[in-house]
Write a structure and sequence with these properties.
Layout: H1 2-8, E1 14-15, E2 20-24, E3 34-39, E4 45-52, E5 61-66, E6 71-74, E7 82-84, E8 90-92, E9 101-109, E10 116-123, E11 131-134, E12 146-151, E13 158-163, E14 166-167, E15 174-176, E16 182-185, E17 196-201, E18 206-208, E19 224-225, E20 231-232, E21 239-243, E22 251-256, E23 259-262, E24 266-268, E25 276-286, E26 291-301, E27 309-312, E28 326-329, E29 332-333, E30 335-341, E31 361-367, E32 377-379, E33 384-386, E34 391-396, E35 404-409, E36 412-416, E37 419-422, E38 431-439, E39 444-455, H2 464-479
Parallel strand pairs: 1-10, 20-29, 33-39
Antiparallel strand pairs: 2-3, 3-8, 4-5, 4-9, 5-6, 7-8, 9-10, 11-12, 12-16, 13-14, 13-17, 15-16, 17-18, 19-21, 21-24, 22-23, 22-25, 25-26, 27-28, 30-31, 32-34, 34-37, 35-36, 35-38, 38-39
The structure holds 2-acetamido-2-deoxy-beta-D-glucopyranose (NAG) (3 copies).
């Protein structure tokens, strides 16, 4: 120590040289040995001194080698595991995390009155494989805060985090500590449950942890039932599924008439043939979060459908400003909804000019899709009548919903209804009879015409119709002369 102290007095300004220092092996892990190999030593050296850190002060002095005396002198920073060789290299045995960091070698020349030649080296250990520790691996969704840390706590490494294989998004829900070793998750949700990986990195190595995903506990919100209908057509009665978003999975029970019927997610309603009205309660329980909830589902299979009515999100819309949605309620399963605008003059809604006068809109539902009408047919099909006969015609066209019928004679409206009855007709009832079938749901209308010729004592008028009728009579007359005698 005396030698060193006297030497230190004369070192003033450092000079640089092409001294190189490298670690052998370049990657060293904890518990192994590493040699800090010094190359291109300057000439005429008398001593080398190794320091831990950047400073060449006595407190950080590890060991030195005095060439002339072939002597090693150890200092306050010596741990007992460092060996300096005559060629200036430093062996560190059984390295620990504490050995990482910078080292300085000071080389003193013969007759040098400066600080000598200084060389620096930073020793990094191979990073251990990190693992993620969590303050809570089973947090309750959205309410609990979780702290993740990347372990072991290691010197001279930087920490990086990944979520779902991506770098962390900027979010108020995620907060890194100053050195990035811990990550705080506020109110963990599905988006922030992971999987997380952390990485430790230094200039010589990096290593990544296994992924960790938080097991979010959540539930129970009010469940939903697979079918949102209340009214059903008998053939359409569904199975009911009680749907909940819960982790771990909730237990389901069905209460019907206050009695526990079944512990299952799906409930099969037996075939219903007559009017039926029942309330089903799906009761759910999550034993981990101790959450419970229920939903009540009414099923009505009516003998007759309920009277529909219209609800709106806005009954007082502002002209040209508000969109209005109208809903035909109640919801029915197996029926099709039909809208009528302006008192049954069926115009497809999309063609309407807005705003729609709500007073004029009605709705209803029908079984199966609206269709038709097809061409109507008039029964009976024969056309010749005798004066004094009763004329009885009926008209039918396939249509869903059933068509509305109306009758015309020679283009003039006579009456509505599916049947036309005129007692004791005479030749003045000759003419073209038309039946119109109209489907208010599809907005389509079809007409068929039929000739009615009444033969009688009167000679037909010489109207265009008369001529036709005359021709016909002649035809009949030839075929059955007795009938006209
Ligand atoms: C210095 O000596 C050590 C121990 O004998 C040896 O391993 C190392 O290779 C030497 N360094 C140089 C630069 O020769
Ligand atoms: C290495 O150091 C650890 C403690 O730091 C010690 O338990 C172990 O015995 C040492 N191994 C050798 C080979 O010196
Ligand atoms: C922490 O990580 C951020 C990126 O996520 C990075 O910008 C910052 O430099 C890191 N801080 C430290 C001390 O490593």
């Amino acid at each position: 120590l005396h030698i060193l102290a006297s030497l230190l007095i004369f070192w003033n300004t450092p000079t640089t040289a092409q001294v190189t220092i490298e670690a052998q092996p370049t990657k060293v892990s904890e518990g192994k040995d590493v040699l800090l190999l010094v190359q291109n030593l300057p000439q005429n050296l008398i001593a080398y001194i190794w320091y831990k850190g950047q400073k060449t002060d006595f407190r950080h002095y590890i060991t030195s080698y005095v060439i002339d005396a072939e002597t090693i002198i150890v200092g306050p920073a010596y741990s007992g595991r460092e060996t300096v060789y005559s060629n200036a290299s430093l062996l560190i045995q059984n390295v620990t995390q504490k050995d990482t960091g910078s080292y300085t070698i000071q080389m003193i020349k013969q007759g040098d009155k400066t600080k000598g030649v200084i060389g620096h080296f930073t020793l990094y250990l191979e990073t251990p494989k990190p693992y993620i520790s969590s303050s809570n691996l089973n947090p309750r969704e959205a309410v609990e805060t979780v702290i993740l840390s990347c372990d072991p706590d290691t010197q001279d490494v930087s920490y990086l985090w990944w979520i779902n294989g991506q770098s962390l998004p900027i979010s108020r829900k995620l907060q890194l500590s100053g050195n990035n070793r811990t990550l705080t998750l506020f109110g963990v949700t599905k988006d922030t449950a992971g999987p997380y990986e952390c990485e430790m990195k230094n200039p010589v190595s990096s290593s990544r942890s296994d992924p960790v995903t938080l097991n979010l506990l959540h539930g129970l919100d009010t469940p939903t039932i697979s079918s949102s209908y209340t009214y059903y057509h008998p053939v359409e009665v569904p199975k009911l599924s009680c749907l909940t978003d819960s982790h771990p999975l909730a237990e389901h029970s069905w209460l019907i008439d206050g009695k526990l019927q079944q512990s299952a997610k799906v409930f099969f309603i037996p075939q219903i043939t007559k009017t039926y009205r029942m309330a089903y309660v799906c009761f759910i329980h999550n034993s981990v979060t101790d959450g419970t909830n229920l939903i009540i589902k009414s099923i009505i299979v009516p003998a007759e459908l309920p009277k529909p009515y219209i609800t709106s999100n806005n009954f007082n819309p502002m002209e040209n400003k508000n969109d209005v949605s109208l809903t035909c309620v109640p919801k029915t399963q197996g029926y099709t909804y039909v809208w009528w605008v302006n008192e049954g003059h069926c115009v497809p809604l999309r063609d309407q000019v807005h705003p729609l006068p709500l007073d004029d809109i009605t709705c209803g539902f029908i079984l199966f899709t609206p269709d038709g009408p097809d061409f109507p047919r008039i029964f009976p099909s024969f056309t010749d009548y005798r004066s004094g006969d009763n004329l009885y015609l009926s008209c039918f066209a396939n249509s869903n919903p059933p068509a509305e019928y109306s009758w015309t004679i020679n283009g003039k409206f006579v009456q509505s209804g599916q049947e036309l009855f005129i007692p004791q007709i005479s030749t003045k009832h000759n003419g073209i009879y038309g039946c119109s079938a109209r489907n208010s749901a599809t907005g389509r209308e079809c007409s068929t015409f039929k000739m009615v010729i009444v033969s009688g004592n009167d000679w037909p008028f010489l109207t265009p119709l008369g001529w036709v009728s005359l021709g016909w009579e002649q035809h009949v007359w030839r075929k059955t002369p007795d009938g006209l005698s």
